[in-house]
Amino acid sequence: MNKDTKISLALTRVQFNWTERILELGILLISATTSVAILMIFVFVGRESMPVIFGKSQLDASQSIRSVEDLHKMSAKEIMTYLGLSKEEYNSLDKQSLRELMLLKIETARDASKDKDAFINAASLKYLFFPHQWTGYDKPVFIWQPVSEIRKFNIIPLIVGSLKISLIAILVSVPFAIASAILVSVLVHPKIKEVLKPLIELLAGIPSVVIGVFGLIVIANIVQSVTGCVFRLNSLTAGIALSFAVIPVIFSISEDALSSVPKSYIEAAYALGASRWKMAFQVVMPAAFPGVFAALMIGFGRAFGETMIVLMASGNASILSASILDPARTITATIAAELAETVFGDPHYSVLFFIGLLLFVFTFILNIAANLVMGHLRTRIEGKK
Amino acid sequence: MKAKINYVLSTIILGLILTYAGEAGNIIVKGSDTLVILAQKWAEVYMAKNKNVTIQVTGGGSGTGFAALQNKSTDLCNASRKIKTTELQNCIKAFGKRPLEFPVALDGLSVYVNTENPIKELTLQQLEAIFTGKVKNWKEVGGPDAQITLYSRENSSGTYEFFKEHVLKGKDFASSAQAMPGTAALIQAVARDKNGIGYGGAAYGQGVKHLLIKKDDSSPAIEPVEENIVNGTYPIWRYLYVYVNPDLYKGEIAEYLKWIRSDEGQKIVKDIGYYPLPKNLRSSN
Amino acid sequence: MNHNKLPLQITKPWRDCESIIFTGLCFLATLVVLAILVVIVGYIAVNGWGHITWKFLTSPMTQDIFDASRTGVLSLAIGTAAKVILMTIAVVPVGAITAIYLSEYSSSKSIFTKVVRLAINNLAGVPAIVFGLFGVGFFIKTIGSTIDATFFSQSSGPVWGKPCLLWASFTLAVMTLPVVIVATEEALRSIPNSLREASYALGATKLETIFKVLLPISIPGLLTGSILAVSRAAGEVAPILFTGAAYYMAGLPKSLSDQFMDLGYQVYILATQSPNIEKTRALLFATSLVLLVLTLALNLVAILIRYRMRSQNKN
């Protein structure tokens, strides 16, 4: 609101209307929804991943197993700790059920792996991030095999997989997206721009699952015939498919940034005898650089967080490898593929929420950084005006 | 189209007021996506013969089925794997006893290779070595000199767990094994990859070669066909299960389960791509 | 203001090689980008068109979900439509009111405004799968369970504390909130202040001005935002994977607490879970084509509305 409106308001607002005040308060509260939503995402995703953060997962601890007859001798508290029951659960169970649970515990202990590795809490931060030499391996390794007698939850292969595929996607999409943005914002007639810009942004309207199908069938074949690689579904295939989704994002934001460079810059460049190339690349681009950089960051965030495309096109093998022709497993695809079968409260469930939390925090930080950079651009351009 | 839009809108408005009402004579079945089509077929045929019974079938995965069993939102739970300890614990906590377990069909797991691959048979030990990554080249098992490409399933799949437990003897899959999201993707991948090897349901898999499997070096090589799977000579097979709360195992639910396991119910199993139970496991009517 | 209207002698620096090569490269890049669009749409269309028949479009899903000759997309279309309609009902009021606040009440210096804007920008960048996790952790496990414990404790199982249409729609609503807010705010801001002042001068209060004068004028903007939101939500699969989409269910959802079948999820299932790839191919492409046509058509409509709005503003 500018000064004139404020003056007009002061002159015209005669009534002090309670209903209006309440309604305006309502507007204020509802506007807080977005901020509350972000906070709640953090809280509720974080809540399910707490067992991992605080190391309280109920993986098999080396308890001594008691026989069923011991039930008479154990106090209520002992039974609750031994069987892992909460107070409500203990109160709701009868003697017969408790006997069954004790029997089950004996059976499970008998059938469980006697291996020393089976007793580590593999869903704790230490084992999530650092390598460990598991039974059957000849050196410390980073392994993600959550469904196993000896469960392994190391997330480093997943993080590396996400980073690798996102980087490939950015490297592939940046030249095309930025070149198109330069063309559309600075090099063509505005009438052509009105047609081209929506057309390119239409690419963003293709659902990612359709791009995934295209990647799975077409791009994988092309990549295999061009490179002759061993694995048809690999990081390169996924990266290229992903770039189809990322190009419109980088294009949109860069184009906005380039268009918001004042025309006076361009006129000044021409007035000084610059060629078209010099004007675009040495005057406009540097001026809009923060915006373009922010576009890259947001594009990277989009690539990092994409699920369906990588789920279908990346091969989903959790290996640590630098080769782009090797398959990779991303954080997003892991969550999408594995969450449905986990049991609520199980360590696997908590770990999946934990990597979801990491994903959220990462894109959150990336977005804030991008916003800061955009703000920098705005002050730079508006400041110099 | 307009009628459909109206239907949806009125459903929404009604839905805002309606409470979920259970109907009498209603059997709810939830669980494995592997079994959902078969379960739906069973339900359809049974309902056609018994008009007073309605059976609702939904999928969501074996895990979802067990979760529903625990919180009593389903009568029957379809599962492509055995129940896990945590799930057993939760069931005992919920209804005081372990759920009853009924095998309802057989699933044979084939090992697929590309049609151009000269290898025709492998032993279980060789399979274990290949899929755990110990054996990396086809020449080590009598094939051409080429790197083996491994295709596996996502760890949320009952097939994955079964293969790991019974063929790999609990060892880990090699990290380089690609996790395909479903049978189609796996078969497609092996069909295109000369050096690929994968596993999946024996009834599917046109376009790839099914290997004959030997229990060990001295055993005969068995083909994954119905006869061998049902009589157990083919070594890689598993049961598909239905679990039920013992307190609910009476009346219509018991009748339905008996029918599924009878000769009549088992006739349908072949159409969906699984194998019927051997005679000694069926219920006698 | 466009630089091409400047005198020719200043603006025709075409003579040097650099510019020609450079512009040529940019032109090629743009061509490649457009080609991607054409190739993807074309590939799906060419492979799927043959299977699109009236029967396909109007027959419901049968249990032979992978058999191209026996199943249709009606259940999927209705499921997707229901999810999207519910989402719109949830997102439009919240989005419009937030936009009203940002455009009419906020001052750019207040911390609250800065926080709200930051939240909107961030919400737009949150990965879709994280929304799915949020839907499970908040809507299903917290709100759903609480509703069940308070109102339905006698019932034989979770009523609202499970994946269903309602929670899937709400999850999508949270995801598409930024789109609606940004489009509506843009529309509101482009209304000249003179209109507001005229309204006040005639004795209207602020709220009356907003709801009776400004909002009706900004409906094209609100519409653009909603249509873009709908288009995005129709195609998103990750948020509904655990909050409501069903692999297969007979019939249509009978209440908001039922699961539903969805176009996008079905495309994923068809591409990866089918037992016979050849038989399912046609079905896969036809279903993808229906989804693609739906989302692209919605996008085009939004673009057209926005174009008309902008040209009207210029006049």
CATH classification, class level of the largest domain in chain A:
Mainly Alpha
The geometry of chain C reads as globular
Number of domains of chain C: 1
Classification by helices and strands of chain A: mainly alpha
Tell me the total number of β-strands of chain A.
2
| Distinct helical segment count of chain C | 12
Q: How many strand segments of chain C?
A: 0
Q: Which two protein chains have the largest interface (Cβ within 8 Å of the partner's Cβ), and how many residues from each?
A: A-C, 107 and 104 residues
Stretches of chain A where pLDDT falls below 50 for ≥5 residues?
none
CATH architect. name of chain C: Orthogonal Bundle
Query: Nearest-angstrom radius of gyration of chain A?
Result: 29 Å
Name the CATH architecture of the largest domain in chain A: Orthogonal Bundle
Q: What Rg of chain C do the Cα atoms give?
A: 24 Å
Major sheet: arrangement of strands of chain A: 1-2
Features of the shown structure:
heterotrimer; A: mainly alpha; 3 domains; two-stranded antiparallel sheet; 2 strands; 68% helix; B: 285 residues; three-stranded mixed sheet; 10 helices
Structural summary, described in words:
The complex is a heterotrimer of chains A (385), B (285) and C (315). Chain A is an all-alpha fold. Chain A has 3 domains: 3-48; 60-153, no CATH class; 156-341, MetI-like (MetI-like fold). Chain A contains 16 helices and 2 strands. Chain A has helices spanning 3-12, 18-31, 33-53, 76-83, 87-92, 95-111, 125-129, 156-187, 190-202, 208-227, 235-259, 263-271, 276-305, 308-313, 331-338, 347-384, and strands at 144-145, 152-153. In chain A, helix 8 (156-187) runs antiparallel to helix 13. Chain A is globular and about 95 Å long. In chain B, 37% of the residues lie in helices and 21% in strands. Chain B is built from 10 helices and 12 strands. In chain B, the strands form 2 sheets. In chain B, strands 1, 2, 3, 4, 6, 7, 8, 9 and 12 form a 9-stranded mixed beta sheet that branches. In chain B, strands 5-10-11 form a 3-stranded mixed beta sheet. In chain B, helix 6 (158-166) links the parallel strand 6 (149-153) and strand 7 (178-180). The radius of gyration of chain B is 22 Å and the shape is elongated. Chain C is built from 12 helices and no strands. Chain C has a single domain (52-314), classed as Orthogonal Bundle (MetI-like fold), CATH 1.10.3720. The longest helix of chain C is centred in the last third of the chain and has 38 residues, at 277-314. At the A-C interface, helix 1, helix 2, helix 3, helix 8 and helix 9 of A face helix 2, helix 4, helix 5, helix 6 and helix 7 of C.
